[in-house]
Write a structure and sequence with these properties.
Layout: H1 2-8, H2 13-24, H3 31-42, H4 63-75, H5 81-88, H6 92-102, E1 105-108, E2 111-114, H7 119-127
Antiparallel strand pairs: 1-2
Helix pairs in contact: 1-3, 2-3, 5-6
Length: about 130
């Protein structure tokens, strides 16, 4: 609020910085921060909070990418995480999370397998011995 007040009085960034040092001593903000705020208030802003911006989504774990990953793994369970990531065009860590959290799969001997066997798979294992 002090900076906003001084800008409205017509003080320069340098003058404002010196006044803040006189009042607050070593606890004053850095000069670059003072100049930045002076600029914002000089341009007519009334608040120092950031304005809302459009950003890209925080995650690549979309339904579309999960479906693509599921399809790729169904076609070839021996693919590496890297090759799946390249095909879907997302990073490897996201592919790992999709495989683990959404598809319940993990890597076993270079092959993607479900974490838990279905009843049918369990029966096959019992009768194959």
């Amino acid at each position: 609020m002090n900076i906003k007040f001084l800008v409205k009085l017509g003080k320069s960034g340098n003058e404002i910085g010196e006044m803040l040092v006189q009042v607050y001593g070593d606890n004053v903000m850095k000069k670059t921060a003072v100049y930045k705020r002076v600029k914002h208030f000089s341009e007519g802003r009334e608040s120092v909070t950031d304005e809302e911006r459009s950003r890209r989504p925080a995650t690549s774990r979309t339904e579309e990418n999960i479906a693509k990953g599921r399809q790729i793994v169904r076609e070839n369970r021996q693919l590496t995480v890297r090759s799946i990531a390249e095909q879907v065009n997302i990073n490897r860590e996201t592919v790992r999370k999709i495989l683990d959290e959404y598809l319940d799969m993990r890597k076993v001997c270079a092959k993607m397998v479900p974490k838990e066997l279905t009843k049918e798979q369990k029966q096959r294992r019992v009768f194959s011995y």
